[in-house]
Amino acid sequence: MNNRPEQLMPAFDRLPEPDQIAQMATWLAQAGLDGLELTNEAAGLKLRIRVGQAATVPPAAPAIAPQVDAGAGHVAVKTPYFGHLCLTHPLRDTPFAPAGTRVAQGDVVALLTLDSLQVPVTAPVAGTVVDVVGQPGALVGYGAPVMHILPD
After folding, report:
1. Rounded CA separation 34/57 (Å)
2. What's the DSSP call for residue 60?
3. Which helix (H) or strand (E) holds 119?
4. β-bridge partners, 39
5. Calpha distance 90→112 (Å, rounded)
6. pLDDT in tens, 33-92
7. CB-count exposure of residue 81 (10 Å: 0-12, 13-18, 19+)
8. Are 126 and 103 in contact (CB under 8 A)?
9. What pLDDT sits at residue 69?
10. The Lipoyl-binding domain covers which part of the protein (predicted)?
11. Is the dihedral of CA 93, 95, 101, 104 positive or negative?
12. What CA–CA distance (Å, rounded) separates 96 from 77?
């Protein structure tokens, strides 16, 4: 039983479109999960997604190819999954990568949390964090920009 007041999942009051279900299955496979079940008894809805053994999962790194913003030369750090954005380390009060921080390619710069699941958000390039655009605790989707890095 979850005693936390915040809602971790968006409202499940209708079934998703088939392309949305396919995207969720891809995300589950990329995260190494074998399935997901959502139930809304009040609405009479139940959705069960199972990822089969034969499913092809693209390589984990890099999930999203870095794209340089031509105007500023910045590279956006984008989320590899969906969940609530966590910009500070859960065991410390310090941010992973505030503006002005130098990061190496592959450094963890944020986390996505969904209940007890934590997915790292990594820097696609080495450089300096120029701004953080993601809001702590916000529910973000796949590919959402959370910060920008000026590459070395």
Report:
1. 12
2. S
3. strand 117-122
4. 46
5. 11
6. 778 887 777 777 777 787 764 434 344 434 455 565 545 789 999 998 888 999 998 888
7. buried
8. yes
9. 59
10. 94-149
11. positive
12. 13
The lowest-confidence range among 11-15, 56-60, 109-113 is: 56-60
- Under DSSP, is residue 24 helix (H, G, I), strand (E, B) or coil? helix
Task: Count CB-CB contacts under 10 A for residue 145.
Answer: 16
Domains present along the chain, CATH in parentheses: 1-55 (no CATH), 75-151 (2.40.50.100)
Tokens of 81: 């999954």
Q: What distance lies between CA 75 and its chain's CA centroid?
A: 17
Assessment of whether the complete model's pTM goes beyond 0.70:
no
The rounded distance, in Å, linking the Cα atoms of 15 and 37 is: 12
Rounded to 5 degrees, what angle do the CA atoms 21, 141, 128 make?
145
Cβ count within 10 A of residue 78: 21
Instruction: Take residue 129 and report the two structure tokens written for it.
Output: 């964090």
- Tokens 């910009």 sit at which residue? 87
Q: How far apart are CA 133 and CA 22, in angstroms?
A: 28
